[in-house]
Design a protein that fits this description.
Length: 119
């Protein structure tokens, strides 16, 4: 019984190694050039001088301006991100203050103990 099980397991394991018919690579027609002949690479021309804050104002549309302001004020994700930013600033400020206080207390403690060390 045990020998038959091992033999069956070996047959199944070796049977998984059989891949199938011999693979032949399909023929692919490769073009000699791209479809857009004559076009040269265009160098990037960044527009860093353009204001990026209220970009929609370049259209001069008062309705668009009002809609953008309304969307900005109603954006809960942006409000949440701003609240998290303020919270992280408060935590960082508290950590800095705590570090300064700890250093000051350590300094004062050392100064007091040095003052008591006299004869």
């Amino acid at each position: 019984m045990k020998r038959a099980f091992i033999l069956a397991l070996a047959v199944l394991a070796l049977g998984g190694c059989i891949v199938g018919p011999k693979y032949t690579r399909p023929a692919v027609v490769t073009p000699t050039a791209y479809k857009e002949p004559g076009q040269e690479w265009k160098l990037a021309a960044p527009s860093d001088a353009i204001a990026k804050g209220t970009w929609w104002e370049i259209y001069g549309d008062t309705n668009l301006n009002a809609l953008e302001i309304q969307a900005f004020q109603a954006n809960q994700g942006l409000k949440g991100a701003f609240a998290r930013l303020l919270q992280s600033r408060d935590v960082a400020h508290d950590a800095i203050v705590a570090e300064i206080v700890a250093a000051l207390l350590a300094f004062l403690g050392a100064a007091v103990s040095a003052g008591k060390a006299g004869p």
